Amino acid sequence: MGETFSVSVEGVLKSFDGTPAVNDVSLKVRKGEFLTLLGPSGCGKTTLLNLIAGFLQPERGEIFIENELVTHTPPYLRSIGMVFQNYALFPHMTVAQNVAFGLKMRKVPAPKIAKRVADALEMVRLPHLGARTPRQLSGGQQQRVALARALVINPKVVLLDEPFSAIDKNLRAEMQVELKQIQKRVGITTLFVTHDQSEALSLSDRIAVMSHGRIEQLSEPAQLYRNPATSFVASFIGDINKLPCRLVSVSDAEAAFEFGGIQARLAASHAEGFSPGSEAVLYVRPEELTLLDAGDPAANFGAATVDTHVYQGTHVDVYVRYDDGRVLRARHPGFEAIERFPAGGRVGVSANLERAFLFPAS
Ligand SMILES: Nc1ncnc2c1ncn2[C@@H]1O[C@H](COP(=O)(O)OP(=O)(O)OP(=O)(O)O)[C@@H](O)[C@H]1O
Ligand SMILES: [Mg+2]
User: Fold this and answer.
1) Per-residue pLDDT tens for 93-127?
2) Ligand nearest 37 Cα, by number?
3) Average pLDDT over residues 207-233
4) Residue 276 CB neighbours (<10 A)
5) What percent of the chain has pLDDT over 90?
6) Which residue in 228, 222, 218 sits closest to 35, CA to CA?
7) pTM for the whole thing?
8) Ligand number with the minimum distance to the CA of 44
9) CA 354 – CA 33 distance, rounded (Å)
10) Cys-Cys crosslink for 213: which of 23, 149, 187, 303, Cβ 3.0 to 4.6 Å?
């Protein structure tokens, strides 16, 4: 027997009106893992969660919870706790009744219910609010009740659909830390959905980046940032410059490319599958571009004119314009770059092309 996964999704397809919302997706979630589905609105995150939870049935493919086939098992028999995109607390029930709901449905005896509800509310640090109704709670508190309600049934996996989207930014950061602490303490497998990349990067053991119903890449956060598998992932995760260019020559060791009359080289391993004449797009992050004084021979990426500065506290983004009009963003720590490279002045550009990615022009 191989590794037991908390959730295995195998070749699952689900369409609405003939259009696939989840398109041949396979995914294995490890035990105890915090895995995030990340992608833009409409890419199929909620649909995939609903398929795993059992609120939707796939047209094709299978779903397993800890090796048990559940593709056609009703939701309440799947050992899954779910927090919905809009909390979905019962407004007419107290907090304690909300949390108790899943236990009642499972016919747990009353004295046991009281104890488990108290434990669950303790876990989310709301032990004293059991008698209130959801209306009497803040958004963050409602969110914690929803989490308690999902965890109280001791599920094998908890599914969280954009749980913090309605919470203001400061409280959100606090809730993220808290969720991560609870998840670690309880050790529960967590499948989390967000379209917020910084939330995904900070919380997750692994991230599945979705686009148009498919998983584009499943990796650890740092891998997504440093080694994006597709142009979509490269542009979705972090800031990046996109530079249309043309391959000039490709040898065993290196590839030369050209843009706006400037030639640059990168390792052949970065240009696999490209041949001379191919149209391509070079993706390079702002922090991999360094500005130099005009004429500095270390400038491997041509010369340009400083356009504008955007001061960001920890760093300055300097926009530079090449003679053909294209603009690149370079990032310098501190604010010293504002004085050193004034607007309108000429600069040399140096690019760390070890950390750049070449994708075919679409
Ligand atoms: N019940 C439905 N009937 C018809 N189309 C649907 C239904 N549910 C989802 N869709 C469509 O399926 C696609 C995926 O929707 P889904 O809700 O899974 O996206 P999402 O990634 O969760 O987006 P968001 O970030 O906005 O919540 C969308 O094009 C959506 O319009
Ligand atoms: Mg959604």
Assistant:
1) 999 999 999 999 889 999 999 999 999 999 888 88
2) 1
3) 96
4) 12
5) 84
6) 218
7) 0.90
8) 1
9) 31
10) 23
Residue 83 has pLDDT above 60, yes or no: yes
Atom of ligand 1 nearest to the CA of 193: 22
Q: Is the CB of 90 under 6 A from ligand 1?
A: no
Amino acid at position 133, single letter? T
Which residue ranges make up each domain of the chain? 5-236, 241-360
- CATH superfamily membership of 241-360: Nucleic acid-binding proteins (2.40.50.140)
Angle 62-67-73 (CA atoms, 0-180°, nearest 5)? 55
At 167, is the pLDDT very low, low, confident or very high (cuts 50, 70, 90)?
confident
CA distance 144 to 121: 8
CB distance 46 to ligand 1 below 6 Å: yes
- For ligand 1, whether the C-beta of 44 sits within 6 Å is yes
**CA–CA distance from 346 to each of 204, 259, 296, 311 (Å)?**
42, 18, 11, 20
Distance of alpha carbon 226 from alpha carbon 355, whole angstroms: 7
Identify which of 17, 47, 193, 196 to mutate to test ligand 1's pocket (most ligand atoms within 8 A of the CB). Answer: 47
pLDDT in tens, 233-248: 999 999 999 999 999 9
CATH fold label, 5-236: Rossmann fold (3.40.50)
- Could you tell me the distance, in angstroms and rounded to a whole number, from the CA of residue 161 to the centre of ligand 2? 7
Q: Is the pLDDT of residue 174 over 60?
A: yes
